Structure formats: structure tokens, C-alpha cells
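Postdoc handover notes: sequence design on the structure in folder B. Input C-alpha cells:
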């Protein structure tokens, strides 16, 4: 039996999406509802379970000028169904690969919701042939509105290769959590890593052999979007330490997860540097390498927060307690 929705006016875009079950799914459904509310005449939300029903599929094709399908994770349920049922699409998005994150069975953070909303909105505006306003294109409320920043673009110049597969410090439930063992973290810090620079850029390393130590800047690629929205945290997740701003910590979970380590250079072979002392996880993108120069990089009369002094003192005393 066909329900009585045949008197609907045609619309320009139909959005199919996952509706929940994981952080990106919930974020996608909220984003799509918001976009529908913003464009009630042009945009509608489609019902994926209706696609295998022939007369519904025909109606979808008749009523919608364009169609976009959003899968929230790499299982790609929607794409498989659309392909099986022969549903033509004008755009397809798979959120976890697109955003470079892993699927998590939890509600999305505000930062992830914003990220998903902006990503979908960009595609929707492209399909509708409309331009985004400045506020829609950029994250809101950063206090630097109106500032004329040049376009900032980072590109990885190589990759870290080592045996550190999991980060010891993770961003979890709005704070940091230390998951490693201090002895293991120390071992890892002394482990050998290879910095594999893109072959085409090998000459960028020429002359580096003359230095014993380097500053390596890398991107902490395992930090999830939630970790990038932390403003304050307890250092290494310890609640007995004060809650401090992220810029007062060395946590990799920060708005721009750029990390820096001083390493000793053991060897250069072509486009590969063998170094000791890097705390990056295997696969971390390398952003920059500079020679370490104590004339620039070391300071006199250094003052540290008490909690940071304690972090370094406790392992030496054998009393380190991560939580
Ligand atoms: S693609 Fe499939 S498994 Fe992944 S969130 Fe959507 S419905 Fe769930």
C-alpha cells in the first residue's frame, strides 16, 4: 500500500545518512537535521530502509533533483545498499576516513559535531550551487574573528617509523588519561626511530649530519577530534595535579596536535635519519626538522610548575603513580 505523500512538491536535494550507533553517526544525523531546518524548501532527509521498496525508490528519484549519501563509518552500509538497489547518487561521503578518525561507540563531542556539520554543509552547498558564508566555513567563537590570517597549510614531509604502536597518554572523557607504564614509556623514549623523508625531498637533509641533536616536529595523528577540543586538563590525567590550560602542558592532545622532541642523530642514509629519543607513535607525520642549538634552544634559570617537577622526580624515587 502506498501512503499519501504523493502531493509533496519536488525538492532539490535528498540527504541519506546514518542516524546513530557511533559518534560520527549521531553527529551526522544532527548535522543533517540542522541543514534540513535551515533549508526546508530545498533539502529533505531520505529514509534508507525505504530504498529497497521499488515504488518508494521511484518516488525518491522523481521528487529529488540530487542525492547525497553519508556513511558514518567504513562499514559503508548506505553505499552498499545504494549500489545493490541501483540508487543513483550525486555525492558520497564516508565520515571516519574523511576526517581521519576511528569509529567510537559514544556520543559525539561538540568539536566533532561542528566538524561533521561543516563537512556536510560544504558538500550540500556545493550541490545546491550556493556559497558558504564566512561563519559557516570557519569554526565559530575563536576570539580572532576579523583577524586577517594568511592561509595556513601544513603538509607531512615524511613519516616516523618505530615500534611504539600505541600512545601512553590519551584524551578521554574530557580529560587526559595515562595508559602506559612509566618504565615502558622510558624505554620507548630511548628507542630508535627512523625518520623517513619523502624520496623527492632527500636533499632537504643535506648538511644535517654535522649536528648531534635535532628538534623534530611531528603531528600527533592518533589524537581524536575530542582531544583537540580540550582547553584544560589534569597533567597526565592525575587528579591530584591542578587543572591547567593545555598550553601549560606538554600533552599531545591540543587544538593543533603539533609535538616537538629533541633527539640525538645516530645516522643519515639518503632520505632516512636514524634517531634516538623520539616519543612519537609509529606512523606520525613529520612536519619539520631543525638542528638543535643550545645557544637558541636552551635557557638559563628555568622555572617549572611543581607538578611537572614531581612528574620527573617520582619515577626516580620509584613512587610514580599515573592515576
Ligand atoms: S555505515 Fe553502517 S555501521 Fe557505520 S554507522 Fe552507518 S549504519 Fe552504522
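Designed sequence:
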Amino acid at each position: 500500500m502506498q501512503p499519501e505523500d504523493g502531493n509533496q512538491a519536488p525538492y532539490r536535494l535528498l540527504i541519506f545518512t546514518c542516524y546513530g550507533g557511533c559518534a560520527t553517526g549521531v553527529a551526522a544525523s544532527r548535522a543533517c537535521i540542522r541543514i534540513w531546518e535551515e533549508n526546508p524548501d530545498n533539502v529533505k532527509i531520505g529514509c534508507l530502509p525505504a530504498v529497497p521498496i521499488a515504488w518508494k525508490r521511484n518516488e525518491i528519484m522523481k521528487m529529488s533533483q540530487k542525492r547525497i549519501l553519508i556513511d558514518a563509518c567504513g562499514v559503508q552500509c548506505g553505499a552498499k545498499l545504494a549500489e545493490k538497489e541501483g540508487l543513483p547518487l550525486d555525492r558520497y561521503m564516508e565520515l571516519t576516513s574523511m576526517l581521519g578518525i576511528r569509529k567510537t561507540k559514544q556520543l559525539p563531542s561538540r568539536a566533532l559535531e561542528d566538524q561533521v556539520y561543516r563537512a556536510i554543509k560544504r558538500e550540500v552547498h556545493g550541490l545546491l550551487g550556493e556559497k558558504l558564508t564566512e561563519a559557516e566555513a570557519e569554526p565559530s567563537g575563536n576570539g580572532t574573528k576579523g583577524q586577517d590570517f594568511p592561509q595556513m597549510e601544513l603538509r607531512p614531509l615524511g613519516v616516523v617509523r618505530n615500534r611504539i604502536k600505541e600512545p601512553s597518554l590519551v584524551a578521554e572523557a574530557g580529560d587526559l588519561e595515562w595508559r602506559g607504564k612509566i618504565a615502558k614509556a622510558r624505554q620507548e623514549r630511548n628507542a630508535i626511530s627512523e625518520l623517513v623523508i619523502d624520496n623527492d625531498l632527500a636533499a632537504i637533509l643535506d648538511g644535517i649530519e654535522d649536528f648531534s641533536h635535532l628538534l623534530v616536529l611531528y603531528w600527533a595523528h592518533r589524537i581524536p577530534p575530542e582531544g583537540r577540543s580540550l582547553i584544560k586538563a589534569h597533567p597526565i590525567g592525575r587528579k591530584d595535579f591542578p587543572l591547567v590550560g593545555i598550553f601549560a602542558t606538554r600533552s599531545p592532545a591540543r587544538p593543533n596536535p603539533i609535538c616537538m622532541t629533541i633527539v640525538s642523530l645516530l645516522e643519515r642514509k639518503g632520505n632516512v635519519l636514524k634517531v634516538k629519543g623520539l616519543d612519537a607513535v609509529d606512523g606520525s607525520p613529520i612536519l619539520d626538522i631543525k638542528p638543535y642549538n643550545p645557544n637558541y634552544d636552551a635557557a638559563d634559570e628555568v622555572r617549572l610548575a611543581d607538578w611537572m617537577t614531581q612528574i620527573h622526580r617520582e619515577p626516580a624515587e620509584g613512587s610514580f603513580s599515573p592515576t
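Context for whoever picks this up: The chain has a mean pLDDT of 85. Don't rerun without checking with the PI first.
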